[in-house]
Write a structure and sequence with these properties.
Layout lengths: L1 H14 L12 H6 L9 H7 L10 H14 L3 H30 L5 H17 L4 H5 L4 H22 L3 H21 L6 H11 L2 H9 L2 H23 L11 H20 L19 H19 L5 H14 L21 H17 L9 H27 L3 H11 L4 H13 L3 H14 L4 H13 L3 H14 L4 H13 L3 H14 L4 H13 L3 H14 L5 H13 L3 H14 L6 H13 L1
Helix pairs in contact: 1-5, 1-6, 4-5, 5-6, 5-8, 6-16, 6-17, 8-9, 9-12, 10-12, 10-15, 13-14, 14-15, 15-16, 16-17, 18-19, 19-20, 19-21, 20-21, 21-22, 21-23, 22-23, 23-24, 24-25, 25-26, 26-27, 27-28, 28-29
């Protein structure tokens, strides 16, 4: 209980200054503010949340957690921050318990008191580490604290099950481990590496234990099966969403060699970084086969070799080093993705760093010297730990302020790196949101000069020029964005809207129909298409599109309202208009438009 209170006080104290932070214009609006899917906890909507969708990352537990927040807090970010901090605290607590169980298995000569100290040190370092600020303070990163809690909870249950002699408890704990693993995968698919961690654990215990494990492999087989299924779903979604990028360096070998560089960059992020940023711009070599690449390979092999050398001296160190490599594997860009390096990517992997540091402090604690007091080394160990915790705590509290709002986030990121095109693009979006078009144009033009192959920058420049009524330039940047990434949904929608604005309705409809064909479960696209059909006086097709939108998302009021207005204003059918207005209120009784539709119903019924 004392440990829980200590961790609770530290986590709350560190993150209390993030409670006033707002939603930031970097996924928060789309995932929370404008996400109508989180507005209801009705069973039909929960089923929608857990439904698989084409080209969509499958993280339903994160969406459900937002729905729970919305139920109590609506769009007050305070409640969402409280949830994130609570989940982080639970993660730190379960790390303490899981580490204690891990040490009982791997640290054969460790006393109970020594193991407890190592577990406490590891959990404490994890709790204060500033690399976790992004995962805790950025609300869109909720998936990190969710997957972290369930990942370590699954490991804890697995370790407890292996040490339990009572059959009922044994089976029950394996069942809980399996359930927590499934929940971790539903939070973020990177949890699929857990079977690799368990295999590493059993190998670390020694040959005899590994043989026993292989004879009773059913729990592991179930975990592996879930892991393979989730991996397939993830890869399929990435392919459908155009989320897999070309090999960096032009071929698989060059791309694979870069993974050695990325692993060292992640180690640097955990151990040697002072100024953390929401985005890191990496200058990759134009030629992969260089001396620096060779040095990165040698460094990794040296670290792995050192871990192997330590196997018989400290199985925990061996396990910690390979924990890092197993858990960071999805983020090494062996399958190339858009982001190479991010603080949130090391959330689970950083446990290895915290554990090794904790072992170091415990080794110092246990030293003895004839000429020194028996309390000297314990005092020195605690003093050094306090300095580390104080330093990390200061960095964490300071880092929380960077996430206060969108403008602060991107301004400070640019202050740390004036050539960061991603931060420039983010700042440009802030200016767009505040209709500061000239400032947006200025910063985005700088961004496109630095990063001419970034489709996001081109898309945002297209928006700027469209607002400034420079339609030729706007179209140029939308088309450029699509040439760089043909699957860029927002650019395709923006191009269609631009075509409609300049009077080319047929091209606009054609563009949007092509996108609808690729994303047939997207209710918003059908709704937009209905508007275009209506503007083109193709009313039958407009009606069908609105109806399809309402079928896909029955609890959204907008398609019912549009259908009602179409029948009322353009077809003169008041009876059907009334029907759709009433249906909209029935399906979305808490909508802000309810009073507006009730007034229309009252007017129509009085005529």
């Amino acid at each position: 209980m004392f440990t829980i209170l200590v961790l609770g006080g530290i986590v709350v104290g560190l993150y209390v200054n993030s409670l006033g932070n707002r939603f930031v214009q970097w996924d928060d609006p789309g995932l929370i503010v404008r996400n109508t899917q989180i507005r209801s906890l009705e069973w039909s909507n929960i089923k929608e949340i857990f439904a698989l969708r084409r080209a969509s990352t499958y993280q339903p537990l994160r969406v459900l957690s937002y729905a729970l927040d919305y139920h109590f807090w609506k769009l007050n970010p305070l409640g969402y921050h409280i949830t994130n901090i609570t989940l982080y605290l639970l993660t730190c607590i379960i790390i303490f318990f899981a580490t204690g169980q891990l040490l009982k298995v791997l640290r054969e000569r460790g006393t109970p008191q020594s193991n407890t100290r190592v577990a406490l040190f590891a959990a404490l370092i994890f709790a204060v580490h500033p690399v976790h600020v992004e995962a805790v303070t950025w609300l869109s990163a909720r998936k990190e604290v969710l997957v972290g809690f369930f990942f370590f909870a699954s490991l804890y249950c697995y370790l407890r099950a292996g040490r339990s002699s009572e059959r009922r408890a044994h089976v029950g704990l394996y069942g809980l481990a399996f359930l927590c693993f499934v929940l971790a995968c539903l939070s973020k698919p990177v949890a699929v590496v857990l079977p690799g961690v368990i295999l590493l654990l059993e190998f670390s215990r020694g040959r005899l234990e590994l043989r026993r494990f292989l004879r009773k492999v059913l729990p592991f087989a179930l975990l592996l099966l879930v892991s393979l299924v989730v991996t397939y779903i993830l890869l399929k979604a990435m392919v459908e969403a155009d989320g897999i990028y070309p090999y960096r360096g032009g071929d698989f070998l060059s791309n694979f060699l870069l993974a050695f560089r990325f692993s060292i960059l992640n180690i640097k992020l955990m151990a040697l970084t002072i100024n953390y940023s929401p985005v890191y711009v990496l200058a990759l070599p134009s030629t992969i086969l260089t001396v620096s690449t060779f040095m990165f390979v040698v460094f990794n092999l040296g670290l792995i070799g050192l871990a192997v050398f330590m196997f018989h001296r400290s199985k925990v160190v061996f396990f910690a080093v390979f924990w890092f490599y197993v858990t960071i594997l999805p983020f090494l860009n062996i399958i190339p993705i858009s982001t190479i390096l991010a603080d949130r990517y090391v959330f689970i992997s950083s446990f290895a760093y915290c554990l090794i540091l904790a072992l170091g402090f415990e080794s110092l604690w246990s030293l003895t010297q004839k000429d020194l007091s028996k309390d000297f080394f314990p005092s020195l160990s605690v003093t050094l730990l306090v300095f580390l915790v104080a330093g990390y705590s200061y960095m964490t509290v300071n880092q929380n302020r960077m996430w206060r709002d969108t403008y602060t986030l991107w301004s400070e990121a640019l202050a740390k790196d004036p050539h960061n095109a991603v931060a420039m693009n983010g700042l440009g979006v802030v200016y767009l949101e505040n209709e500061m078009n000239e400032k947006a144009r200025e910063v985005l033009e700088k961004a496109v000069t630095i990063s001419p192959l970034d489709p996001l920058v081109h898309n945002n420049l297209g928006i700027v020029y469209e607002r400034m009524e420079q339609y030729t330039r706007s179209e140029h940047h939308y088309l450029r964005a699509l040439s760089l990434r043909p699957g860029h949904v927002e650019a395709r929608i923006n191009l269609s809207n631009l075509q409609a604005k300049i009077g080319d309705l047929e091209s606009a409809i054609k563009s949007l129909k092509a996108l609808v064909a690729e994303r047939p479960q997207d209710a918003i696209l059908y709704y937009r298409l209905g508007f275009l059909y209506e503007d083109a006086s193709r009313l039958d097709e407009a009606i069908e599109s609105y109806k399809k939108s309402s079928e896909l998302r029955p609890h959204i009021i907008n398609p019912y309202e549009s259908l009602g207005r179409l029948y009322m204003d353009k077809l003169g059918d008041q009876e059907r208009a009334l029907c759709f207005f009433k249906k909209g209120i029935e399906m979305a009784p808490n909508s802000r438009k309810r009073s507006e539709l009730e007034a229309l119903i009252k007017t129509l019924e009085s005529d």
